[in-house]
Amino acid sequence: MSRLVVVSNRVADPRKTAAGGLAVALAEFLNNTGGLWFGWSGKVVESAHGGRAGEAELHTHQAGPVKLVTLDLSREDHDAYYLGYSNGVLWPVCHYRLDLADFESSYIAGYRRVNQMFARKLAPLLKPDDVIWVHDYHLIPLGSELRALGCRQRIGFFLHVPLPPPLMFAAIPGHDWLMRGLCSYDLVGLQSEADHEHFCRYIQREAHAQDLGDGQWRVFNRTLRAGAFPIGIDVEEFNALAEGAEARELYQRMKREYSRRKLLVGVDRLDYSKGLPHRLRAFRELLQKYPDTHRSATLIQIASPSREDVTAYTDILHQLESLCGSINGNFGELDWMPVRYMHRTVARARLPGLYRASQVGLVTPLRDGMNLVAKEFVVAQDPADPGVLVLSRFAGAAEQLGEALLVNPYDSEGTAEAIHLALQMPLEERITRHQALLASCKRWDVHWWCDSFLDTLNKSQAEESGTPWLRL
Ligand SMILES: O=P(O)(O)OC[C@H]1O[C@H](O[C@H]2O[C@H](CO)[C@@H](O)[C@H](O)[C@H]2O)[C@H](O)[C@@H](O)[C@@H]1O
Ligand SMILES: O=c1ccn([C@@H]2O[C@H](COP(=O)(O)OP(=O)(O)O)[C@@H](O)[C@H]2O)c(=O)[nH]1
User: Fold this and answer.
1) Which residues fall within 8 angstroms of residue 177, CB to CB, at 6 or more apart?
2) Do the strands 210-213 and 216-219 form a parallel or antiparallel pair, or are they unpaired?
3) End-to-end Cα spacing for the chain
4) Which SUPFAM superfamilies match (predicted)?
5) From ligand 1's centre to the CA of 398, what distance in Å?
6) How far, in whole angstroms, is CA 358 from its chain's centroid?
7) Residue 194 CB: number of other CB atoms within 10 A?
8) Is residue 99 annotated as part of the catalytic site, yes or no?
9) Does residue 271 have an active-site annotation?
10) Which residues line ligand 1 (CB under 6 A)?
11) CA of 343 to the centre of ligand 2 (A)
């Protein structure tokens, strides 16, 4: 059997839990299959040359069945590749926020340099029959860099973030170079049908791709496949977490402490794509419009620190703090604070307890590739007395979780109405909706995601030997 080689910017020890959907999903999968996981160590080194770009040393570590190979980044590489191009250009554009993109021209050189370094370091570790699976927007050009070094293995790519419509993607200087990079893979996987449609439209419109049917395309003189493979969670693993001491202890404590209140919960990285200020404005609207929620509805909002060196992220932090303060100031009572806001990461092992103790789960991103928290909330519920998921129609998860209360997060009045509906929903309706949602989470779980992606990749033709690859 071929060995699986996974490459992603973020690498986590598969035996430990991590915050961030990509690391969580891959760790769960690799723990079962074994293989090699290659990526950034998460460390930035201030080298003797003042943290300037340079060759990195590899760290190798065996974590159960998985071999982790990571490299540190110099300050200069980290700032240009991770903060600059990945999170200052690609992240905002892919989340439809052209207004937040910082098209600083020097970033792309760092992005390219790090992708070339990843390829140079990875290529000697590869075996001829390896199957390589590259993840996310940080590493779009990695496939073509590996090809340029002579790698002929099957290489698949999965984009965890949304792919915007062609004209929006075309706002990125060098978008055609990125798309050529994407088309050097044998399979391109996207989170949703909407993202897949954007990909097909882009390659047809900008690169005159020929549709060969069955998900295959002829473009840039080669054949590739593309499709939607919505990521899921490991339902059994999450159920086991829910049975663990940490989750149960938290569940009991929350139930005791909030026995006379209705609990709403939000768990997000502190990211502008997650729509946190919009969510708080909808919550304020709820308190204003529905006095029956006073002294009762309590929102616990966890905002896990993320990418704090990017300006847009510090701006959102200040907005959020000010909104929480004003809601508590205007509506709070001596014995009731409407919002409990925490700017810290909560261990994933505790989250099922928090989800299960809540009557309403608020997952209201302005745009999100998938949003695994939505699926975790569903799986953590008591089937006999489940909470209600209020979900943004702009989360990738909405394509599969249509039985949630779907909202437009930009419409604070509409969202407040949906939250009120959720708080009032009769038991019978809650059970019916939850059964359908749970069935979707089980059907499209993380195993389905990996298996369907890898089966399709295996169907793809490996790169024809002898095809000369020019660096793009
Ligand atoms: O690695 P960070 O910069 O700390 O960010 C964490 C991850 O954020 C993004 O997650 C995405 O992947 C999830 C799983 O597919 C998906 O549910 C979510 O909608 C996406 O936003 C990012 O794409 C990852 O690369 C980051 O590791
Ligand atoms: O304080 C936190 C916040 C988030 N998470 C986990 O991080 C992941 C977030 O994934 P999601 O797809 O929702 O969004 P992303 O952060 O990847 O954009 C989920 O597994 C959460 O359980 C966590 O463990 N602790």
Assistant:
1) 141, 472
2) antiparallel
3) 32
4) UDP-Glycosyltransferase/glycogen phosphorylase (SSF53756)
5) 17
6) 23
7) 17
8) no
9) no
10) 10, 20-23, 25, 136, 160-161, 231, 306-307, 368-372
11) 14
What domains can you pick out in the chain, each with its CATH number? Answer: 4-232+448-459 (3.40.50.2000), 235-443 (3.40.50.2000)
Q: Which one is catalytic: 160, 196, 198, 278? A: 160
pLDDT in tens, 350-401: 999 999 999 999 999 999 999 999 999 999 999 999 999 999 999 999 999 9
Coil, helix or strand at residue 396: helix
Over residues 333-343, the pLDDT tens digits come to 999 999 999 99
Helix, coil or strand: residue 91: helix
DSSP annotation string for 324-357: HHHHHHHH-BTTB-SEEEE-SPPPGGGHHHHHHT
Task: State ipTM.
Answer: 0.99
Q: Which atom of ligand 1 is nearest to the CA of 396?
A: 19
Closest CA to 400 of 359, 454, 437: 437
Pocket flag, ligand 2, residue 346 (CB < 6 Å): yes
In this structure, the number of other CB atoms found within 10 A of the CB of residue 57 comes to 10
- pLDDT < 70 positions in the chain: 15-21, 48-54, 461-472
Q: How far is CA 201 from the centre of its chain?
A: 23
Of 368, 420, 434, 445, which is the active-site residue?
368
pLDDT given for residue 382 in this prediction: 98
pTM: 0.95
d(CA 87, CA 90): 6
Distance 51 CA to ligand 2 centre (A): 30
